[in-house]
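Saturday, quiet lab. Running sequence design on the structure tokens for the scaffold JK sent over.
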């Protein structure tokens, strides 16, 4: 009997007892459905997290700052240290703390640490407002665009950092507020940004909108290119004495994108020894991603338990089939069919039942998941733009098929071995 003959016979034999096979397929269906849904949930959330990571920081960039000085109300103020740096009243530290400012000398120290290729200051800019065509002035929060960041754009394109053009990417929430008809309509328009300098004079800086960005997990602020950030910063410092030192809240340090985890840890240790603290975007969001993966793993565990229970159903189905077809097995052996072929016949029946259950389970999961995902994206999760809560990746679906069919094959080994070992004479005598 050839391989195709074994397959055709196995498929036909699977439907000899339709009720028994249907119940077994239903048991497999539950496990395959659950596995497909949970894997899609994990893929969807992790894809969204990955998009957010690329929108708020590059994987080869580390944010570096000086450890915060915590104010203890009962201990009184800390003594002033000559040359110790001033304290910036920012919200970058925990409650009750202030962030120690960094200087150009600190940037040079960071850049000299082994493994770090460059260090750039993160300039704190505080524009007053943004307006377009006298449609009203609105508060504006901005963040400088760093190299390596990929903006999640709803319209337009990225920045041109090679020239001196002043460019801004607005969040989608600013578009209707400023009076634009749509995201696409905002691209190419010129907005005015108000900045107050050190002596209270307000300056207007014109910038071109080159894109519109979807909100991220950390907020919905605008992004500015290097030229616009520098222009706002210079306007803020207008009126300060020339001797006033330039201070920064933090810095970005770039390292080799191919650096291993141990190399990144070594860079962090060197920064700590030099009096700084460094953290990557993965450090900031990695914990959340680990929690998500843990939850998905637990849900997958329940699905595997359901599949193992279905495996016992396959064992029962095939054992009963072997018993009912004892004389048939004896006849096949009497006609020269080897024990290996009989084993393959019964194993193929089990694998086919597993394939049938996983195909139905995965198919129903994709249909239901796509519907639920679209409903949630337009309703409860509408605020998380770009989140497709259930994303069905071909690789994960293939893994479900392989796992289910593997469990089905393992479940078939006992009854298939029993069928293969039967004596043809005893089988033909069986009543």
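Result came back. Writing it out in full:
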């Amino acid at each position: 009997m050839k391989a195709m003959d074994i397959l055709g016979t196995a498929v036909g034999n699977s439907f000899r007892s339709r009720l028994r096979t249907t119940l077994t397929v239903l048991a497999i269906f539950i496990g395959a459905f659950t596995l497909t849904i949970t894997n899609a949930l994990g893929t969807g959330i992790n894809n969204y997290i990955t998009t957010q990571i690329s929108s708020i920081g590059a994987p080869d960039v580390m944010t570096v700052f000086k450890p915060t000085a915590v104010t203890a109300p009962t201990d009184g103020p800390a003594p002033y240290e000559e040359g110790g740096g001033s304290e910036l009243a920012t919200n970058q530290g925990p409650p009750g703390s202030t962030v120690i400012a960094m200087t150009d000398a600190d940037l040079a120290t960071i850049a000299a640490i082994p493994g770090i290729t460059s260090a750039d200051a993160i300039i704190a800019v505080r524009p007053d407002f943004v307006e377009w065509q006298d449609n009203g002035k609105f508060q504006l929060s901005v963040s400088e665009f760093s190299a390596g960041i990929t903006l999640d754009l709803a319209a337009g394109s990225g920045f041109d950092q090679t020239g001196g053009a002043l460019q801004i990417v607005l969040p989608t929430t600013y578009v209707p507020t400023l009076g634009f008809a749509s995201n696409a309509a905002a691209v190419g328009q010129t907005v005015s940004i108000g900045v107050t300098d050190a002596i209270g004079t307000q300056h207007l800086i014109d910038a071109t909108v080159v894109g519109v960005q979807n909100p991220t997990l950390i907020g919905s602020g605008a992004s500015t290119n290097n030229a616009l950030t520098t222009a706002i910063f210079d306007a803020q410092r207008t009126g300060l004495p020339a001797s006033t030192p330039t201070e920064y809240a933090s810095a970005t340090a770039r390292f080799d994108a191919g650096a291993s985890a141990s190399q990144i840890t070594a860079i962090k240790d060197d920064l700590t020894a030099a009096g700084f603290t460094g953290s990557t975007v993965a450090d900031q969001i990695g914990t959340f991603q680990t929690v998500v993966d843990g939850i998905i793993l637990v849900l997958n565990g329940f699905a595997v338990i359901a599949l193992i229970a279905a495996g016992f159903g396959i064992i029962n189905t095939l054992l009963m089939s072997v018993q009912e077809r004892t004389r048939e097995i004896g006849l096949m052996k009497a006609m020269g069919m080897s024990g290996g072929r009989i084993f393959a016949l019964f194993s193929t029946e089990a694998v086919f039942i597993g394939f049938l259950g996983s195909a139905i389970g995965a198919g129903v999961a994709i249909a239901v998941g796509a519907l639920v995902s679209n409903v949630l994206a337009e309703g409860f999760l509408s605020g998380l733009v770009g989140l497709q809560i259930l994303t069905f990746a071909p690789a994960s679906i293939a893994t479900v098929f392989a796992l289910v069919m593997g469990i089905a094959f393992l479940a078939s080994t006992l009854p298939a071995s029993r069928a293969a070992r039967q004596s043809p004479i005893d089988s033909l005598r069986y009543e």
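Notes for JK: The two ends are 26 Å apart (CA to CA). Confidence is low (pLDDT under 50) at residues 70-78, 80-97. Ask whether to fix the surface positions before the next round.
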